[in-house]
Design brief:
Helix 3 runs antiparallel to helix 4 and helix 4 runs antiparallel to helix 5. The chain has five helices and four strands. The protein is of the alpha+beta class and 169 residues long. It has one domain. The chain is globular, with a radius of gyration of 17 Å. Strands 1-2-3-4 form a four-stranded mixed beta sheet, with helices on one face.
C-alpha cells in the first residue's frame, strides 16, 4: 500500500496540472490569452487547416463537445459550466469553423477570452458569435489579430454536410 500512495498522489497532481492547461486551437497558438500576437505564417495556417478539416478531427471535436454537454446535463444546471469545459468547447467550435487560426481560449465564470491570429477579417468577426453558441458562455472578449498574408489555399470539399454539429444555448 505504501508504494501505491505516492503513485496515486503523483497521478492526481499530473491530472490537475493537465486540466489547468490553456485551450488552444493549434500547437503554435499563443501560450496565454493575454498574448494576442502570434507569428502565423501561410505554411502553419495550411497545416492547421488540413488538421482541423480532416474527417477524423471533426468527429473528435464533435465527440468532445457532445461528451461535455452530456456531462453537464447530468449535473443539472445548464447556466453553470466548469471553466475547463467552456474552454474546451469553445476551442473545438473555433478549431472546426476557423481551421487556419491560431487561437488561445481562457474562461472564467462564463466570460471567455480569445486571443491569437486569424487569416482574414471575416474570421475575426465570426469568433464572438461562434463562442456564444456554447452553453454557459455569458460574455466574449476577443483579442485576436488578422494576418492576411497567412491565407492558405481553400481546403477540398468536405464529405460531411456541416463542419460541426450545432451546439447552441
Amino acid at each position: 500500500m505504501k508504494t501505491l500512495t505516492p503513485l496515486f498522489l503523483s497521478s492526481v497532481l499530473l491530472l490537475g496540472l493537465t486540466a489547468c492547461d490553456t485551450a488552444r486551437t493549434s500547437n503554435s497558438s499563443p501560450d496565454t490569452a493575454t498574448q494576442p500576437e502570434s507569428n502565423l505564417k501561410e505554411p502553419v495556417a495550411q497545416k492547421n487547416q488540413n488538421d482541423a478539416t480532416s474527417e477524423l478531427r471533426r468527429r473528435q471535436l464533435n465527440s468532445d463537445i457532445r461528451a461535455r454537454e452530456q456531462r453537464n446535463d447530468a449535473t443539472g444546471d445548464d447556466a453553470i459550466r466548469a471553466d475547463g469545459d467552456l474552454q474546451s468547447e469553445v476551442r473545438s467550435k473555433l478549431e472546426a469553423n476557423l481551421p487556419q487560426s491560431e487561437l488561445t481560449i481562457t474562461a472564467e465564470e462564463g466570460t471567455v477570452t480569445i486571443a491569437g491570429t486569424v487569416v482574414d477579417d471575416q474570421q475575426l468577426r465570426k469568433i464572438e458569435p461562434l463562442a456564444k453558441q456554447i452553453k454557459g458562455v455569458r460574455a466574449v472578449t476577443v483579442k485576436a489579430n488578422v494576418a492576411s498574408h497567412a491565407q492558405p489555399d481553400e481546403p477540398p470539399a468536405a464529405d460531411s454536410k456541416e463542419v460541426t454539429e450545432t451546439h447552441t444555448n
